[in-house]
Amino acid sequence: MTQFFDKNQNAIVGKVRRLKYSEFYADSEYIAITHPSVSTVETLHVVDELVKIFSDDYPEKEKLKSLISTIASARLLFVELRNVIEKYKKLGGNIDKQTNFLSQLKNLKNLIKDNARKSTQNDEEINKEIEDQIPDEKNKNKIGDLIIRGVEKKIPNFIYFDQTDFNDNKKKSEIIKKFYTYFINYVSYIRETLEDMFNDNAYRLKLNSLQSKLLKTKYVDITDYFSLITSKIISDNRGYSHEILLEKLAENEMVYKSIADNSNVYYKNFIKIFQNSKKVDQKCIESLTKLIFKLNQDSFINLNKEVFRLKLSIKLVFKPIYDKGIELYVTEFDSFKPTASKNRNELKEKFARLFTVISTETEYSHILSLLRDSVIDEKNANGTYKVLSDIYGQRIKNLSLIKTDVSDSGKSIIKKQVQNTEKSDGKGFSDDIINVKYCFNKYFFKSLKYEYLNDINGFPIFFQLLFYVHTYDHKLIYDNEDKHETDIQNLKISFSRVYNDDNNAQFKDLVEILKVMINIESFNFRLNCITSIISKLDNKEEFKVTTEVLKTFLAGKIKESEICLRLAQSFNIHLMTDIADGLLKLCTCNSNFKSANEYSKTLNRNFDIESELTSSFSIPYYLSAKLADDKKYNNKSSNYNEKNNQIVMSILFKVFNCSSDSDKKMFLENKNEINKEFVKLFESVNRLIKFYDNDNAINKDLRNKSVKYILNGFSRIHEESLTHRNESARIIIDNFINYKLEHITSIVASNSDGESKREMFDTFDTVMQRRANDTLHEWTKNTSQLGDKVYFLYCYHQYKEEKFDQWYKNLNKDSSFDKIKSERQSVKDEFKLNSDAFDLIKIKKLQHNQVGALALIYHYLKNSSENQENLFIKIGTGQAKRDHENYQKYYRYFGFKSMYCSLKSSTKDFCDNDVIYSDLETYLHLLRNEGYNTLINGVSIHLPDVSNAVLIMDEFDSLILDSDELCQYIYYFPVNVQNHNTRFDTKEDMEQLFEKKFIKKCKTKFPGIFDKWWNEQKEKDGNENRKTFQNSLGKEINYPKPFLNRLKNEKEASFVHFYLDALTFYSKFKQVFGFSGSIAEDNMPKFEKLFSGKSSVFYKIPPFFGTDKLTENRTLGNIPQVIKNRDDFLEAIGKEIRQRYQEQPILIFADSFKKENEEKSDYDYIHAKLLEAKNTFLKDCTMISIKSEEDINKNIHKIGKLGSITLATRIIARGADIKVDKNVEKGLHLLFTYYPEKENIYIQMLGRTARQDEKGSYSEIVQKEKIFVKVQEVTVNSKNKKIHDATEYFYRNFPSSSTNTTLALKWTLFSALMQTLSNSEIDKINDLEKFIKEEFL
């Protein structure tokens, strides 16, 4: 109320001031003339009432004090207001006509009275008001508000008013009890009062706050409150709000104290809830579990006994209690709180009594097996081990039930690892710690109390044996209390007699192999086995402990399959090498291993148990055995085929044969996921088999080749991880079948002498085989070419030379075909003559279009003195780095030196090589780096002379059209500042830094140049906002910070020291050959002036599969939509994806550049929508994000697979060869969500689909119209050329011995000064090189 009153007080004061200073003075003369007599009766009456409310004799004055602390000030305010109104009246003003003011005043008066009434309303009255509101269902908000007021405002101060008996605590308690009955029954109505009723977190916080305040009230009996909550929880009309109350109740310290003081009452309430556990939400049970451990010890034990006696659900009741107790114990164990030790001891005592009850009292002995089989799991096992260790000491601690290493332990033969305890659980195996469940054995607990076992040599090993002798199959009942102690005593005697340091390792092996055999055979069987081993050791017999125990258990013929599975789980499958008929047993116990073994025989390869049955064989054996139990995949499946299964299993066993301890660790930690991967590979191999599911002899041959190369490729020992091998195997299999079988049929039928068939098989051999030095990555990459190679052969035989000739003539209307015709034979002859060179790069044939392109190149290179024209060809191309990797051997064959230019190269390398591969940006960046090194360290730079060189440009149109995006990069040069207080605020400071004499010469030679540059720097100074732009490939480039900012803060000068102009660079070559798949013919004439009047020719080479289907293969899937509203835009994109994702992989082009006025880029908005869809209809799809070259390399093999949704920037538009699975009939679908500025980029983006005569489609859903930047005539800018040439002149003639830092600064400044000149200014300069020579060289 105070806040509201203050707010309105300000409003009133504001109005008064406006009356004083605005109406009173400004308009007083006018008012006095027109209103000689006015009425203010109503307003003054309201003001008088307000003055009375705040007077000393007001009856409710004391009640107002709880709301407004400054009553006297409020009264003075309204007295002053009355005076102002009187003055206003004398001047002719009628305050009653200020209706808004009067209305506010009335509202204020009513609000004060109403809140005064409410402030004095007690909880008894609130109870009554709630009771009145209950019948009306529409008053939820009102009831919720009353409950909140009752808790937050009234309790405990205003429970009821009775001046004669103010301390009637009994009556207060009754009122409070009635109130929290309403609180519990109508708690959900509180949500209606919240500002955002759908904010669940705010609602939970509100309920917790209200309940906490309620429980802090002096007159509340928490036991009564808890009883009410209990009744509500087990009733049919409980709700989510009651679950929240119970959950928060379990976190309340006052409740803990109440439970400790009234344990007997609470435990009965707990039982009441547990008896209704089937209809109580499990969350409620979990909330109660923490409270149960606040009971005193007697009540805690009584509660558990009652749970057992009533046979309440172990899963729903006892397990949650046990889990919470273990969780609390572990938390206190790791806590540094002062009370941690006390709390831990209390928990330990409760658990100790609980374990004593269930292990000694016959009525509850059955709980031991329930604990073992239904309660102990991987989550609580570690905590259980801690509790047992603290209760029973070293006898439990010595069991070492902790995670063990996969490597050999000391001298022990057996590998310590994890064990599955029961095959039937279907969960595989878990860590050793889970074996703690077997402590819950009546006789093991009994043995923990045998005092005579404390004094024994080899105490740790003996108690491990004692534990594992009790881990018998509990279905084989052992019940002989009298004999048990005698048996254990005899075991102690024989162990003590034999054990020593020399046989310690053998006893460890005995423990480890017994661990593998956990829960197998009876107590007596296990005891006799241990006794037998001890006897052999006593007799000094030569034998392997592990083999002997394994033989003993296998001889029992109980759970043989389980034993083999256990050996695999523990990476001990190799122990079967010592067992007679071990291979037969492995086959008998695992039908899938038997299948793999049978297939080996068909390949004349018998499984060598000595060399092949290693511990690494454990993973595939285990996984295949689990698969053999799965009806979807085993011989009970309707799709099962033994021959096919043999192939599948042979491959699976090779791929999943682990090679390192890290493989084992990864497998053990992610066994369920690895099992899924195993199934995926199973399905991949089946796809391969199904692909060749035909009696055709060629199909069988190809299938057998595929299987052979996979088996051979994974047969030798490799360093690759299990994950890498599995992923690669699936990719390789997909590559092996990513072509059309009808193409094979066509190739074979293309000639009758069998030559084409041999070519085809040679192609398969070349691509499929893993060569001796191939890494897995290289082999996988090599196999990805199979589809293209098959298609290449198909087209070669399908489309004859005559077809190409016709296609070419249709595309090119001039006489250029004569050039092809005259040179074509020379190309063929040279190809044949140098077949060995082409073999090195795996080229067996040239397509007719390749021969045609080479013929044109021959013509223009053959007589270079005559043919000075530049040659531009429209044809599909490759990538520089990739092509150089492929062609190095080819160049070497002819004695040519070649190199790929990287940032690690040097300009000297250019002079030493005949062929240089490079992308332009790297080449120019290398020049800049060496130029910087020249200036700083005086190292000479070797600028290549390209005047007699031929420039071969891939994607030449982009290199030319996008040359304006080629940035000039700044470098940072240290400056020597004599006076560190220099602020560089004046030209004088700069002249001092760069030598006044030099700057004077610049000013003389180039008038105004320095002033112009200085003014530009001053204008930029202080602007810290760094701008960015996005180039044609979607890469964002940052502009540098202003020059003066860097100079002042870092004492570094930032300059473009090596000015490079791409167009000038191109024009310097003797001849230019350009290739592109995206150039438009009408743009060619615009390049003419670039090459200094040298003429250029342009030809279009048709694809080797022809032009007939090019247009029809790529279809537009929608009428292009321009949608301005972003939500509608995103909705349309989602709809398009939903329509296509089940039939086609989708590649979405999105703009990643964030405009200044936007929170996120289109790319980010679409990415967020895709993530939402991933939770719904796209849940089974693979989401791929492409923003960099690295992303492309990592994901290129996934983009064309059905189920892939790829979101990419336009970086993927250039050169990315996306292989679409041949089973995708409609091909890859492109979704344009924007248009790039330049048409050539759009063409490149469009070129990602319908490649290699495949089907493809695209759709366009954008926010702006398709308007491409018009291609202007491309010419060399005279200014850029002069600066570029001047820069080259400087670096070519730089004195290599110079390390003058002043020279470096002078040059970099001069370079910057030149860039400020206009074209007309620089055109007037004729002796630029002379000036450079005089001043710098």
Automatic annotation (TrEMBL):
Transmembrane segments: none annotated. InterPro entries: Helicase_C-like, P-loop_NTPase, SecA. Residues 1125-1287 form the Helicase C-terminal domain. GO terms for biological process: intracellular protein transport; protein targeting. GO terms for molecular function: ATP binding. It comes from the Eukaryota. This is Helicase C-terminal domain-containing protein.
